[in-house]
Design a protein that fits this description.
By secondary structure, this protein is of the alpha/beta class. The protein contains 19 helices and ten strands. The strands form two sheets. A seven-stranded parallel sheet has the order 3-2-1-7-8-9-10, with helices on both faces. Helix 2 packs across helix 3 and helix 7 packs parallel to helix 10. It is elongated, with a radius of gyration of 31 Å. The protein starts with 8 loop residues before the first helix and ends in a 7-residue tail after the last helix. Required for morphogenesis under gluconeogenic growth conditions. Keywords: Cytoplasm, Membrane, Transmembrane, Transmembrane helix. It is found in: Cytoplasm. This is Putative gluconeogenesis factor.
């Protein structure tokens, strides 16, 4: 039999140094400014010291005087005053008692964290992240579709003070079927936004799961069915908002523009009207959409939405379809009024391309003019992408009749409002969430 290998002293020493550095790093994080630990640690030490003095007063002046006397005599016998003065012995005993108390609290917290499926290292990182996110800017994002959920997935890394206001007039696909059968608002874009802001990766994945089979549920997503269940159980999604945010562990808040079902109606420049946004692309034809409205028009907004707009440091429109995602949310009268009255900068994230059947041949300036006409306020900043998609991607969009939105033919006023940055995901014609979030963080916002 061969001899066992000798211990690798150098490796053990390296591992010990690494563990020591990890412990020191964790201690520095716990003591970092703003994490909310130092103040309570200081209070604990002060209270412990005051308690010790109070206990000494009680024992020395009360019926336990003989115990204090025997304690002092025992210490004198154990450690001669010639070796250490009595007050030094007292300070040492007090320090050891305080260290023991702190260590017991640390081990108790460690046991509780491990029992909850976490640990001290993970816990301090989570606390620090939550503290930083809670100090992030207050942002209200308005719109719908994949563009809004894409934006939210980037913003969640910079702030937990995010409120998404989602258009709910979609009448196609899974949302349309649920609207028709249950007389509820369209849940599809809400589901996408909940998944983008959920702190539970498993729940975010489940929300977007689309059933490929099953009588009656084929084509529906799990998230849409969950929202339909809550709407049916509580008589509308307005009453279920708090439960949804808690169950899904949402970083921020997601609200529908209104909790009342509504139909989007488009007026074309040839005088026709089209009811239902799912019919726009097929029926607009060579005409142009001049205006859209909601039927019924006088829809109430949730108080939480109006409060979020009032407190916002920045209000973001888009990215998303102009007439079917952004403007429908602005047609709720109370929301439009709150945005007009808000001192927060209004930022429009311009679409990357025109959309066939909806914004054919519309320029960037005409997109901004349409928002102004429906909202009654012109965006203060317009965020425009400067990166070019790959040629093969551009060719596919061109064959579908779409073209890039840029500053070609833009007025001097619009150019003064534009911020241009590369915002594309590599190899795609889609906004990059991280680049978009960084761009918005770099724009001015109202102090809150």
């Amino acid at each position: 039999m061969s001899d066992p290998p000798l211990p690798r002293t150098g490796t053990r020493r390296t591992e010990a140094l690494a563990r020591g550095e990890h412990v020191r790093r964790r201690a520095r994080v716990w003591m970092a400014p703003g994490i909310g630990v130092k103040r309570w640690l200081a209070l604990f030490i002060v209270c412990t010291a005051v308690g010790a003095v109070g206990f000494l007063h009680f024992t020395w002046t009360g019926p336990l005087h003989f115990i204090a006397t025997r304690w002092i005599l025992w210490l004198n016998a154990l450690i001669s005053p010639e070796v250490l003065p009595l007050y030094v012995v007292g300070v040492a005993v007090t320090a050891l008692a305080l260290i023991g108390a702190l260590w017991s609290i640390f081990m108790l917290n460690r046991t509780m964290l491990v029992g909850a499926g976490s640990g001290p290292g993970l816990a301090v990182d989570m606390i620090l992240e939550q503290r930083n996110l809670s100090r992030g800017p207050r942002i209200v994002a308005v719109g719908g579709g994949t563009g809004l959920s894409n934006l939210l997935s980037g913003l969640r890394g910079y702030s937990s003070n995010i409120t998404a206001v989602v258009a709910v007039s979609d009448d196609g696909g899974s949302s349309g079927r649920l609207r028709e059968s249950l007389q509820m608002i369209a849940p599809g874009d809400l589901t996408d936004c909940y998944a983008a802001l959920s702190d539970s990766p498993v729940m975010a994945r489940l929300l977007l799961h689309r059933f490929q089979r099953g009588d009656g549920i084929e084509g529906h997503t799990f998230g849409n069915l969950m929202l339909a269940t809550l709407s049916e159980e509580q008589g509308g999604l307005g009453e279920a908002m708090k439960d949804i945010h808690e169950v899904l562990r949402i970083r921020g808040r997601v609200y529908p523009a209104s909790t009342h079902p509504t139909t989007l109606v488009a007026t074309l420049d040839d005088g026709r009207e089209i009811r239902g946004e799912s019919r726009f692309a097929a029926q607009v034809g060579a005409a142009r959409i001049t205006r859209v409205r909601l039927d019924p028009p006088e829809l109430p907004a949730l108080p939480d939405v109006l409060e979020a707009i009032h407190e916002a440091g920045q209000i973001v429109l888009g990215p998303g379809s102009l007439f079917t995602s952004i403007i429908p949310a602005l047609l709720v009268p109370q929301i439009a009024r709150a945005i007009r009255q808000s001192p927060a900068p209004l930022v429009y994230v311009a679409s990357l391309m025109t959309e066939p059947g909806e914004t054919d041949n519309l320029t960037l300036e005409e997109h901004v003019m349409a928002i102004t006409a429906h909202l009654g306020r012109t965006p203060d900043r317009v965020l425009v992408n400067t990166a070019s998609p790959p040629d093969e991607v551009m060719q596919r969009y061109a064959e579908a009749g779409a073209h890039l939105l840029d500053l070609h033919g833009a007025s001097h006023d619009l150019r003064g409002r534009v911020t241009q940055l590369p915002l594309l995901q590599p190899g795609q014609a889609r906004h990059d969430p991280e680049a978009l979030a960084q761009a918005l963080m770099g724009l001015p916002s109202r102090p809150t």
